[in-house]
Structures are given as structure tokens and as C-alpha cells.
Description:
By secondary structure, this protein is of the alpha/beta class. It is built from eleven helices and ten strands.
Amino acid sequence: xKRFLTCGLAAAWCCGSLGAAAQQYPGKPLRxxxxxxxxxxxxxxxxxxxxxxxxxxxxxxxxDNRGGAGATIGTEAAxxxxxxxxxxxxxxxxxxAISPALYPKVGYDxxxxxxxxxxxxRFYNVLSVHPSVPARSVKELIALARARPGQLVMPSAGAGxxxxxxxxxxxNMTKTDMLHVPYKGGGQMVIAVISGEGQLMxxxxxxxxxxxxxxxxxxxxxxxxxxxxxxxGLPTIGExxxxxxxxxxxxxxxxxxxxxxxxxxxxxxxxxxxxxxxFRDYAASEGSDIIGSTPDxxxxxxxxxxxxxxxxxKASGVRAE
Length: 321
């Protein structure tokens, strides 16, 4: 009886200590690991999050860029960090769903090694073509691709990139054959299509929009489930290809094992950040949808994304290059 009483007192003391620690949290600056290099789109968004999250939490949040290897280097560093609430991580569709399915070995498990805090944004691609391509709609592009199997060149930002997988899904759902040519980045992909070296591509809204306005590209459709505010007159690809939808995402996570009380505190702070006018204006300029979610909802979403991308990559035969 004495033994059980001692264990009960110990458990109560531990819970009390955890509760006290959570109430005092955060008591020092936090680190936000970003698995991309400085200056990237994710980095710019992360710096805004860090600044505003720091103001909400009352402690500085320092951005730690750990780019490379398809975002797996920074992701592994975050997975191995102490689960004390002082290491945060900005994960996304590439690092958490695509790279684990694409590379034979990564040093983390997206579901097992992380505790989701909140999904932050979802972003989509625009299907655009070079002005010389005789297609002014998604329907006409599909007809052209079927008439010229394997002849239309589809550059991407690299094998396994969101631009590549969006194209593979389009090919699978439309029963078309287009020649995929991977480039070393999104900038080279865009140059290839604008120059006429490639005929079509799936690129971020913020990338395609300026070139659509100048006439260097013809925008045909967006990969979102509904029309977006940034391009209200542009139809969705799904209006022609029922069920087509392909989007990337970004969210805030912490290492698995982080106390529930700390995750709840971070979730409340993150929801305040994404509700600010500055963050909403930034997301709108990038053509992104602001989401915000509970940790449980984000966890379910993450599991579904891991399964979806693994299935797509296996079906398309994509390999890391």
C-alpha cells in the first residue's frame, strides 16, 4: 500500500512540475528551424511568423535555416531536438510528405517524430503555357497533348517537386503523355517556359501571376479546389478535370514528446499570428489560403498527406535525381 501511495505522490509531483513549467513557458528565446535556405519563400514567411510569434509569447524567436537535401537536413535536426518547447519547426508538403516517399532513407518519420501545432497555409500552382502553344483553356491543352503524345515539354523545379507532382497528377487524370524535364530550381523552370524551351508548367501563383500580366505566359487554370482571390477570373483545373486538386502546405510543429500544455500554448499563439492583417496580406499576395487548425486536425491532415504523396510517387515512378 505504501508503495502505491509513493508512486501516486511521485506522479502527482511530476504532473504538478509539468504544469508549473508550462505556466512559466517560455522562459527563454525559442529557435524556429526552417529546412530551406535564407531568402526562399518559406524562409520569408517563417521570419514573419518568428517576429509575430515572439511578440505574442513574450520571447524572441530566432530563425535557424537548415537547408539542403530536399529539406530533409533541417527536418531531421528538428526531429532530434529536445521536446522542451524551445525548438519549433516549419514543415511543409515537401519535407514531411514528398521527400520521405522520394528518398530511400531519411532520418525521421514525419508522423512518429513530430507533434503538430497548427497548419498555417495552403498554396497552389497555376498551369500556364508559352503564348505560342495553341491552347487557350485546360480543355484545349488536354486535346493538344492527346494529339501530340510525348511532344509537349513540361519543365519542373526538380524531380519530386510540387511542380513535378502536380504535373504527374494532371497527366494521370487526363490520360495524357507529356515530356517531363527536371531543372535545378523554380527559377530555371520559369525561364525555360518563358523562352519557349518548354511548353507548359505548374508554378506557384506568385510566380505565374506577373508573367501572365505581361503576356509572357498564358495562364490556364489553378490547382486549388475553388477559385482564388488573387486570380478570381482564372478557372480551377478541377472545373475541367473533376477531382483534380494539388496544393502544397506549411505548418508549425514541434518534436514528439513535447508537453500537451506547451503545444496548446503554441497553438493559441500561432492562431493569433495568422489572424493579424499583416500576415493575411502577405498570404494573399502569395496566393496562399490561411488555414489555422487544432493540433489534432493537423495530425490527421499530416497522416493523409503522407499516404497520398507516397501513393502518387509510387504510381508515377518518380525517382530522386
